[in-house]
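User: Before I run my own analysis I want an independent prediction to cross-check against. Here's the chain; please return only the structure tokens and, at the end, one sentence I can use as a sanity check.
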Amino acid sequence: MILSLRAVARLAAVAAAVGVVHTACADRTPKVEVTTALITRGPIVHRVVAAGTLQPVRTVEVGTQVSGMIEWLGADFNSIVRKEQVIARIEPSLIRAQLDSARASLERARAALSKARSDLEGLRVLFQNARRQYERATRLFDKHLVPRSDRDAAQTAVDSFRASAASQAAAVKQAEAAVAQADAAVQQRQVDLAHTIIRSPLDGVVLSREVEVGQRVAASFETPTLFTIAAGFDRMELNLSIDEADIGQISRGQPLTFQVAAHPAETFAGVVSQVRLEPVLVASATTTTRNTNPPATVTYNAIIDVPQAQGRLVPGMTAIATFVIPRCEDCVRIPNDALAFRPSVTVLETLDQDQIPVNALPTSTPDDATATLWHYEDGELKPEAVVTGVQGDLYTELVEGPLEPGETVVTSAILPRVSTPIMTSPLAPSRRAGRFRGFRGF
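Assistant: Structure tokens:
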């Protein structure tokens, strides 16, 4: 079979294309993408993050000690009130009637006391007269001028009036007690009348109002709440829930910062005013076996003083707080990613370093300060044994080793993805043709 000149040209083009593809594939040797970080000198810190709720420094529930109908309200939601300001009144007509009745009872008790004292004075006079009659009868009896019966009768009269006077003295005491009781009843009704006027106990803001005009309140068993008043929003408290693993790092006077969703661009400052020792048990959502209780998570409450709230924070806001706990003020530090890095076997084979026993190199553990860092130089990964110290969120202290600040350590080494080239042969059928047309010229 003799090929035409056009067919020979086509075969030569195919051979040239295959050679180009092969050369391109041969030149596409995978390279390792190495990421490094500097060894620096600076502080190492640990951050404790906790969530909590903002609340007023002081909140008072204003109630009433008397029963009755709400006659007038002088405050509403969000009202700014001052101490001793009248914020509600209870209809006082019933209590005024009770006060008038108590005053009348007091007058009756005073009159009874006056009569009892008068009767006592009368009995004392009769007792003194009987005593004188007895003394006279005794003298006459001694002179045999009167019979014994006259003297005995005089003695009986003395004893009778003495007993009557003592009984009347007790009646006077009882009448005095009745007067004191009636007077106390009057004072109680006066206090009840004063309690029909409800006043604010502090300067603040009304958070809630629980009653309406015309509503009847009953204070028989417990004090009904009319208003809830907070002591202003210039100063607030933040109640944080601290995990038991972090509570040992939190102490009174410790500063912190926090943010709220209402002002995401602002950071507020606070100081720990109290760390409460009472544990709070929170049920865990972990699935357990049948007939067993799920494990509980233990947290502790920390109260944070927020002195510069400036009225921008309101009760109930959720805050995310951050405690920055210094581990080291100024030390040589390495990124934690460098401690966690271990090259893969594929990376080492690519770099022709598969002879390095990676599994035999030491790694950083909580009980052993020995670790291995990797240094990338002249296209090779070189392991360096170091001794580490305190650890923070981002950095770990470098205590001893051949590396110095300013040098780099490897944090990651990966192979780039190599795309497989698509070869188009001139012998392949045309996609636009829709079907195989074959070669021309044969």
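Sanity check: The first strand starts at residue 33 and ends at 38.
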